[in-house]
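Translate sequence into C-alpha cells.
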Amino acid sequence: MKNIFSLKKTRKKESFFIDDIKQLTAKDAMIKPVFLYPEDDVDKILKKLKKEETNVCIVVTKEKKFIGEISDEDIISLFLHQVKYEPLVQMLNLGYKREFLYKKAKELINKHQFTVKINTPINKIIELIYKHGFNYIPVLDKNKKVIGVVTPSSLITLLEKY
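Result follows.
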C-alpha cells in the first residue's frame, strides 16, 4: 500500500512540475550575454572569452542588433590552421607574423539562424537547443536588440529550482 501512495505523490509533483514549466519563458532562463563588435580583433576576442569564462561571444552592432557569434572553437581552428605552416616558413627563413591575430570579428562571424523573444516558452527553447545542438539562443526585444542569451547551463540552473 505504501508504494501506491508514494507513486501518487510522485505523479502529483510531476504534474505540478509540468504545469510550472509550461509557464516559464526566455525571460526566466536568460543570462547576460558577452558582446563583441565587428571591429574587435582576435586579441580582444581572446581576452573577453577568458575574462568572462565563456566559450561564445555574441557579435552585435553598436545598437546591440544581433549579427552572429564567435566561439573559442573558431579561434582555435584559425590558430591551428596557421601554425600548421610555421615550420615551413621558419625553414625558408621568411618574415612571419601570425595573421590570425590581426583578423577582426566581422571576418570570423558565424551566422546564427535562431533567435527568440523574451516571452518565448521555455519548452520551445529547449527544443531548439537540443534539436539543433546550439550552445546558446539569443533573446531579442521587440526592437530586435539582444537583451540576453539562454544556454544549456542557464536552463539547468532554472530547472533546478523546480
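Note: The chain has one domain: 25-160.
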